[in-house]
Batch of 4 targets.
Target 1
Amino acid sequence: MTGCYRRAIRLRADPGRAVAEVEDDFHHFAVTIEHDGTRVTDARGQAIRYPWSSCPLAAGALPALAGLPLAAHPTAIYRHTDPLLQCTHMFEMAGLAVAQAARGLGARRYDAWVSDPVEGRVAAELRCDGAVVLAWTLRDGLIAKPDEQRGKAPMALRSTLLANEPPEAAEALLIMRRAVSLATARSRDVDAYANAGEMDHGAACFVFRPGVAEHALRRRGSVRDFSIHPGPLADAAPFGETP
């Protein structure tokens, strides 16, 4: 393939409520958190476009976030509940929604772009509200540039490590690592799998747990290619609502 992977995230905080929405080639989810100004009081998710039939059921795990203190650091959510019992994407959006609520009223948008590999080389860029906040070059799956991340695998930037980073930097790195990881799936025929169990991912999230994965059927035809415009979340519909 000679295109690129694109992932868009938009966040918005209103009084007592924050919403995070994500769309990319493989997913489109929205998460709403309610809060009392100090802690999360409720969380709910919406699966709009998803790869496996059981993905919407993962929204039932989000109420475990009740009681999570509002914190601007996006890794705080990982210390509150087990992410492996959650949908990876709804869980990460919930963390971003909490961070947005902690920052105060307002909105922001992230756009990630990851090139398809050419001779093992990949370029990746992350923008926040149109401004470049991260730019990576990867070779054979490892970060080659910038120098401070040289030699690292993107998913090695775990929440425990990023907890020591400033909130804004940690947020950008969490988003970028996920985008780069997901971009590799563009080279796979994901519709060739009948269910999630056939992918042999291990207990990586709610759907990939033993006993669930075998019954999570592939939703063939759900993949989109956003290599060309319009990209993900290009519509003007309200958060979490399809046009």
Target 2
Amino acid sequence: MKLKTSTLIWTFIWCLFMGVTAISIGFGALFPSMNLISKPFVCPGGNMTVDEHVYKPYPGKTITTLTWYCVDSQSGEKTEIGLFPMSISAGLIYGFLLFIVVFIGMWFSARRSAGYGASGLAALQKQEHESIRDAQYSSHKNFGETPDRTKTAESASARMKELKDLHTANMISESEYEEKRAEILKEL
């Protein structure tokens, strides 16, 4: 199975957006040191520092603000860094890393799906057909003993076909498919 270019482009855009909003701004507020990754872009000639200010405007309410500064290594001059330049540069880095992780997951998923290509699918269909045939044979073999077995085999065959159609349409996972298939065969 081949990954579509449009899917990759939209996934890349989504990852960049999540890198800026969720990772850099969201997690960056919880763990401020995460934003130090943006130092080469927003503070190339100095060190990034953060000042934390805690305010208690009234009892029971605490407000914490973080102010980032770029401190020039030669003069010691502090320049305030805005939230957005820092978040955007850190977020784009995190977004790119997120895309790499998501891309690897998509690639392995596509590769695993491709493993059930034409030959793998044919083998699964043959195994399924043999299981249904064996189930029908065993029900016809004991025809005189229990007349309900023929109906059970026909019902199982119809249920197996429906299950196979759901699996082929990717509406159920491989594990769900195998589990339900085993249940149907057990009922025979």
Target 3
Amino acid sequence: MTDFDALIPEMSRWNNGAGIDVDGWISGSGNFELAIGYSRVFWPNFVEYEGMVLREGGFTAETVAGWMNHYEGDASNVEAMVNHLHLETLHYYAGSGATRERLVYIGHVLVEIHKVKLAHDFPDRSFEVLFDDSIKEELMDYQFTFFQKR
């Protein structure tokens, strides 16, 4: 069971210190603009490009060509590189508030979501969805990615 009080310490300060649950906190702290933005991360759109499945808006033809050259045509490696996400960058320019515990929680959620979404959108394909939750020296090293098994 997830300890949301540990992940979101602000919740315990609500109601004159009596606290609030995560659903109440979302209701009192969130906004629809953020919810819409987060939908791109937590229920992403994918596009098929040259036989690869990539996050919509996450690449250019030049970037893919460069990685194809670098990985000598290995499409799975290219997918993994183009689709990777450094979790700390989700709020990098907003004073991220990142901690290992928060990034690990989000990383595991992204794995579950992407497995479901990729299976839904591409039922005839098999994907590897990866997140390494081992302890890292730098928070920027917590990365998530996915690629097709070929």
Target 4
Amino acid sequence: MENIVTKTGYEWCVEANIRLLKLHQWETPLGDFEESYYKEKITDKTFYERLEDCDVKPNSQPRKTEMYLEYRMYGLVPYNISPIQQAIQFGHAVVDYSRTISETPYEKIYNKWADEDKTFIILNGGTTNNKPENFGTLNKHLISLRENSVIVKEFNEPDLGDQLTAVVFLVDERVFNKELYPDFIEEKLPWSKKKPSEKQLSELDAKNKVNYEHWVEKIGGSKNAFLRDFLKSFRLA
């Protein structure tokens, strides 16, 4: 008996390396074109039938809307408290995060993570010291995250002199899924027996800048570009 393969419209687009330009053109008997595209399993025959009425871009990675991205709750905690205390401090911050974003546009994304994704990533944030003249690394990380428009929530433990003990923030898959969203790699001119001309180098530099801007747009903007670089230096707590 023939094994019939079914995938979502999005998964078929990933396989075909084509991007749907107008999601509302995706026709489905389910009524909700967005939910159908990301969740309804269909055969390749049905996929190509529906694709006939859609504007697409070939050789282009398909995109997900915010509600269908995978999310993880990242947290930074001090290195010098016990693992159980690190988890407790992280939990306090997550609870406060949920209250902070309540009745804001970010609440739906938080609820999506809480209902479906649920993953925690607890990282070693180093030292904590809330004195401005001698901030700990955890305190500096909090400042850096805020300066780069990342929505964060911190927790200060009363039993530890109100020191900062956790910083949490939601991260979407465009930051941590390096297989689907590879790092940006600059093009380089191969050298032969002589150095490339200044004109060649200038043209390549301009091309790399344009390609980098396209890459930043593909991974969700400058905030995600910052997070990809920011998270490289951390290890699990």
